[in-house]
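FYI - complex with flavin-adenine dinucleotide, inputs then prediction.
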Amino acid sequence: MDFELSSTQRALLEALDTLLDRHAGTERSRELAELGAYDRELEAALREGGFEELFGAEEAGPLDATLAVERIAMRLGAVTPVPRMLVLPALGLEPPEGPVVLAVAGDPGPIRYGAQATRMLLADGPRCVLAELDPDTAEPVPSAYGYPLARPVSRKSRELGPGTAAAMMNWWRVGVSAEAVGMMRQAMDIAVTYAKDRKVFGRALGSFQALQHRLAELSVAVEGARWLVYEAAFSGARAESAAVAAAHTMAALGRVTRETHQIMGAVGLTTEHDLHLWTLRMQTLRTELGGRRGHDRAVVAARWGRAS
Amino acid sequence: MDFGFTREEEAFRAEVLEFLTEFRGMNGYFHRGTDTAYGVRQVYRALGERGWLSLSWPEEFGGGGLSPAYEFILWDELAYARAARPPMGPGLVAKALMSHGTDEQRNRFLAGLRRGRINFCLGYSEPDAGSDLASVRTRARRDGRKYVVDGAKCWTSNAHWSDYIWLLCRTGAQDSRSRGLSVLIVPLDTPGVSVSPIPTLDGGRLNEVRFDGVRVPAANRVGAQDQGWQVVSSALAVERHVQFPPKRLRRDLHDVLAALEDAGVAGDPVVRRRMGQLAVRVTEVEALGLALLGEVISGAPSAVPAAYHKLAGTTLAQDIAHAGLEFGAQQALAVGTDTEFLWRQTILETIGGGTSEVMRGLIARQEFGLRA
Ligand SMILES: Cc1cc2nc3c(=O)[nH]c(=O)nc-3n(C[C@H](O)[C@H](O)[C@H](O)COP(=O)(O)OP(=O)(O)OC[C@H]3O[C@@H](n4cnc5c(N)ncnc54)[C@H](O)[C@@H]3O)c2cc1C
């Protein structure tokens, strides 16, 4: 067992950080969100940097791809890294240019980047369907959650083999949880820094034990999520590990949102402050795949079999 | 002990419901929509015409001389209808003027407040004075028959459409804490006052109110100089039973349930169980609300029941909204739906009007005598 990042993993994340310094971050994310836009430049830079091939690369693998997904979300990259870097490669498919989105048949959406996407991978029974989308016919849904939302309409589609839906859902669970972990870590970081800097009653906010304990509890939940996600990726997104990681992560996410805002007081509730850039986006993640209820059910199904 | 309202009080509730048919669907409680400032002012005026903004004021001040139970019923039903929240003016400001104001101030303000014709906002918080209110820095320097005010307030609700700000400012030495504060009434159209928006994540706005050499007549000071803390504390005590009406929660619960029914998940046993648990807590907060009302009626209210009620109620509001988002699946994200909005709005509730931590601290100190 070894829980350190390897030197290749560290180098990888450093390279990714350099790229994200240019193509992500709060300012760029605010600009793109204002336009409701997807970041084609970042997508191209990730492709050229080889990050989309990590999943299947000999010297890297799914865990490395998962670390990258976490990092991209942490830095507010306006792309769809979960399908591109985890789900499609897991199905042996090469990500096409342009945004790709994930959906489950029967879920009425809306989906992030649903109006920008040209391809959608849809879980329909035991199979996946790869659909071409027509952005002009998508039905946009007004969004307060950082990502543009829409209900896409598919044009042509192609069925993939049996069993592909399970692989898709499992990697999706791992991926969306990795994104959530990245965002939760950033939100925590903001709250902890604030607790150190903000003075009330002549002392730092963080010197009050009532707040210290809550920050400590939160970090337990976030650390737990982080390791569950890494383990699930390491294990190849086995159904149970993926569902456990997602169930725990989405439970932690609700708490992190509430507590980080609470600790910041009024300033964190303003749109001038950056905290909401993460906390609002986090809520979109929380609703995917049927939300916590969906993940809890998946845990039960994976461990004890599907209820009749 | 008697948990019921009197027959007269229930008859008044029926009148309130009748009154509300005119304002249904206007959503002034959350100030949603573009015409809300106008709409809310209309509600206040209509209430003022009926004498309902001064139900519990003593008759000598033109009030109804009724039990605080009437105010509670009024604002509880307005909260359920999402029509409006209680305004600061006829509540906190008027009651403070009755106990601390001069005759001249009462003559100047009470009639307009009672009729719903003038609106006040509360200028307490500053960037470096929130929970720690005694560190207020906005300074009022005495200059003959005037004060000259310099500084800035922030997070001021409704300042953009109010007529006056009820201003807590420093008249004592910089480090005089709560001993060197005074309350001034400042017309917001005084030269040197500027109001700018602070957008919040629920799509609403708070305000920054800046004071740049603003000259305020000394006759606008309420209470003695440096005695502002007493004015502010006693004013707060008499208004707590209407600040967080419990029926707002009952309405939240109903709205979320309706949304879950629409989403086709309301029959799910997991959802039913959670909604059942939330319904229990709504009833708990209603009971705490009545206990608080009882305290206010007793005439010697302690802050503890108000803290119980605020803490339990605002946390519950978040939990109800959270269930909507959690069970409502992706549909719950569509902006414009009630469940979606509630989730963003309720985050603000545990901060505004005194944070949850301040409430917990108050309970520990005042109820149990625990100190650091
Ligand atoms: C919707 C809304 C409307 C508002 N309207 C008005 C208004 O009309 N007029 C006005 O004057 N103000 C208004 N406010 C401001 C509000 O009163 C303050 O935000 C509040 O008092 C908290 O202050 P703060 O934001 O500076 O947070 P801080 O006081 O800096 O607190 C930050 C965090 O630390 C916690 N904390 C502070 N002290 C302690 C302690 N001793 N122990 C443990 N934890 C502690 C707090 O609970 C909070 O979680 C409004 C705020 C909101 C959100």
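The CA atoms of residues 179 and 226 of chain B lie 6 Å apart. Chain B touches chain A at residues 125, 127-128, 130-132, 154-155, 198-203, 206, 268, 270-271, 318, 322, 325-336, 340, 343-344, 347-348, 350-352, 355-357, 360-361 (CB under 8 Å).
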